């Protein structure tokens, strides 16, 4: 009887060891330091997190990185201010990574196929406003960019996280390109050459 309970205890210890999670992968923040800063004839930069409560199917609480927080860093790397008391206000207006399950094959054929089991939608939006010291608007640009990708059912948790991170990094680079384009089109007279 004693050997049976020792075997049972040993089996439970092995099961518990197998259930412990692997170390959480860390991912660096996306930066734009490698790009030429945009110099504005303006004064301080204000940053505002204006995105709302995450949707019920938002993945971000389960990810080891944060889209909204990384998007908030954009003006630190990309904007320089020189000269006037005008104010730049940068707002992140959207930051979401949502998921939906896809239909996969079941039965015998399902056992031999590697279906795409999940669709991930990513969206980020930002606005840059230029105002005089008293708050009078002088100009504004805004950008919203989106990406989607599917994940196969055979991917591990780590592989899924890496795929979503890579898509997040690409999304944030899309945001930078769109804001840069809008700034040089609509706020060019305030940009120092």
Please summarize what this structure is:
By secondary structure, this protein is of the alpha/beta class. It is built from five helices and six strands; from the N terminus they run αββααββαββα. The longest helix has 30 residues, at 157-186.
Polypeptide structure, described:
33% of the residues lie in helices and 30% in strands. By secondary structure, it is α/β, with parallel strands linked by helices. Strand 5 (116-131) and strand 6 form a beta hairpin. It contains 5 helices and 6 strands. The longest helix has 30 residues, at 157-186. The model is unreliable at 1-21 (pLDDT under 50). The protein starts with a helix and ends in a 7-residue tail after the last helix. Strands 2-4-5-6 form a 4-stranded mixed β-sheet.
List the helices and strands and how they pair.
Layout (H helix, E strand, L loop, with lengths): L1 H18 L18 E3 L4 E5 L17 H6 L1 H5 E3 L5 E15 L5 H5 L4 E16 L5 E16 L4 H30 L7
């Amino acid at each position: 009887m004693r050997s049976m309970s020792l075997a049972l205890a040993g089996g439970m210890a092995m099961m518990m060891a197998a259930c412990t999670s692997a170390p959480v992968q860390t991912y660096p923040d996306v930066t734009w330091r490698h790009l030429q800063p945009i110099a504005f004839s303006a004064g301080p930069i204000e940053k505002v997190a204006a995105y709302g409560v995450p949707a019920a199917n938002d993945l971000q609480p389960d990810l080891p990185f944060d889209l909204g927080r990384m998007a908030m860093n954009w003006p630190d790397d990309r904007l320089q201010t020189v000269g006037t008391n005008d104010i730049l206000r940068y707002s992140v207006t959207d930051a979401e990574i949502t998921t939906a399950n896809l239909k996969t094959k079941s039965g015998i054929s399902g056992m031999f196929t590697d279906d795409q089991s999940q669709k991930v939608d990513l969206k980020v939006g930002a606005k840059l406003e230029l105002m005089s010291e008293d708050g009078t608007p002088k100009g504004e640009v805004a950008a919203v960019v989106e990406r989607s990708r599917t994940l196969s059912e055979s991917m591990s948790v780590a592989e899924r996280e890496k795929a979503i991170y890579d898509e997040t990094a690409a999304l944030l680079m899309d945001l930078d390109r769109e804001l840069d384009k809008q700034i040089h089109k609509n706020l060019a007279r305030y940009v120092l050459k």
